Each structure stands twice: as structure tokens, then as C-alpha cells.
Amino acid sequence: MEDAVITASAQALCDTVRWFASRGYCPATGGNFSMRLDNERVLITASGVDKTALTPADLLPMTIHGELLTEGKPSAETGLHLALYRRDPDIGAVLHVHSVANTLLSRIGNPQRLRFEGYEMQKSIAGNITHEAAIDLPVLDNSQNMETLSAALEARFDEAAPAFGFLVRSHGIYAWGADLASARRHLEGWEFLLACELQRQQLENRR
Ligand SMILES: CSCCC(=O)C(=O)COP(=O)(O)O
Ligand SMILES: [Zn+2]
């Protein structure tokens, strides 16, 4: 792939990361982001960097098999990103953020999945054409071991695929798409739906 294409990809990914970070989705350096360059290579955020000030220098090229192609320390959650790229060659970008809604809703009551029904914004998730349907967002237990998390994802990938994402309990959300724009749309859509559900539950419990 030409250097110019990699440069353009890195700039587009930086713009997306900063967009989410500027809206509070990456508190205290939380979150990580990647995009596919070709069949074998991705760009992924370095570990522990302030996402509001991300620059292309904070994006590290590596192979989907885990070989780092430059100096630097890739995200602590690299293993999960790479597992997704290996699992589905149609995945073009993977975005992970922390929000109050995704953190709390994945832990209250220890759910295995969250169900969304009746929301117009369900149509932001590809393949959904009406609010008169239900979409499930799987919840995986958190682990600091990326092999454990990747194995849990593999076991439930068929459930996560139509949602283009999943939650990690008490931690955050992963969302993906065929390209960066669709991954961003899915992540924005899920975060809107999660914020609605959290507020709905708060309002209903006050009555
Ligand atoms: C400070 S947030 C805890 C780590 C985390 O969950 C995350 O998303 C950021 O990790 P990274 O190594 O990608 O910076
Ligand atoms: Zn995280």
C-alpha cells in the first residue's frame, strides 16, 4: 500500500478518535481504535495516550497476527482488535470507548445481553430497517487477559456480528464496521441507545 494511502488512513482515524474523545467517550486515556490497511495490516492506537490530542504518530502499524511494524507500545487491548480482524475479513475498523452508560448498563444485574426495542435509532445499526424489531447487544465478562476475552468473543461472535459490537462488563463497548464511517455510525448509534436506556431506567425507577 502506498505511503500516501497510509497517511490518509491515519489522518481519518485520528479525526474519528478525536471526535469521540472531544465528546467525553475516552476519559483518562480510555478507549482504543484501529483500522485495517489491507488483508494483513492494521493501524492501532498506542497505549495510554490522550485521545483528545491524538496525532498520526500515536498510530502504530502492525500485522493482524500481532507483529508490530514500528517502535512503540500498542494498546493493551490490541489482542481483541486483532481477533476481530482475523475472524472477519470484512471488518475495516474497530472502535472501543468508555462511557457511563456502557459501563453501568453492562454491570447492573449482570446481564448476558441488552435488548433494545422500539427505538428509531436502532436503524443506525446496519441491517435494521424498523423500530418494530429487537436488537441484542451481547455482554462479555471483563478480563485483563486478552486471550480469555478473545476466546469469549469467538464463542459468541455469531451473536455479536448482527449488532456490529458487544459490551465488556463494567468496562466499555466495542463496535466495528466495514469501514471507518460505518464503524463510527454503529458506535454513535449504540451510545445513543445506551444513553436512552440508562435515562429511561432512572426515570422509571423514580416513579
Ligand atoms: C485508563 S483506561 C484503562 C485501559 C482501557 O480500558 C483502555 O481502553 C485504554 O487502554 P490502552 O492501552 O489502549 O490505552
Ligand atoms: Zn478499555
Automatic annotation (TrEMBL):
Keyword Amino-acid biosynthesis: yes
The protein's required cofactors: Zn(2+)
GO CC terms in record: cytoplasm
Enzyme class, spelled out: lyase
Domain of life (superkingdom): Bacteria
Reaction catalysis annotation: 5-(methylsulfanyl)-D-ribulose 1-phosphate = 5-methylsulfanyl-2,3-dioxopentyl phosphate + H2O
A molecular-function term among this protein's GO annotations: zinc ion binding
Keywords, sorted A to Z: Amino-acid biosynthesis, Lyase, Metal-binding, Methionine biosynthesis, Zinc
Enzyme Commission (EC) number: 4.2.1.109
Cofactor: how bound: Binds 1 zinc ion per subunit.
Coiled-coil residues: none
Pathway: Amino-acid biosynthesis; L-methionine biosynthesis via salvage pathway; L-methionine from S-methyl-5-thio-alpha-D-ribose 1-phosphate: step 2/6
UniProt KW Iron keyword: no
Single GO biological process annotation from the record: monosaccharide metabolic process
Domain Class II aldolase/adducin N-terminal residue range list: 11-198
Binding site for Zn(2+): 96, 98
Pfam families: Aldolase_II
Family the UniProt entry places it in: Belongs to the aldolase class II family. MtnB subfamily.
Protein function: Catalyzes the dehydration of methylthioribulose-1-phosphate (MTRu-1-P) into 2,3-diketo-5-methylthiopentyl-1-phosphate (DK-MTP-1-P).
Designated name of the protein: Methylthioribulose-1-phosphate dehydratase
Organism for this UniProt entry: Salinisphaera shabanensis E1L3A
Biological classification of the source: Bacteria, Pseudomonadati, Pseudomonadota, Gammaproteobacteria, Salinisphaerales
Gene: mtnB
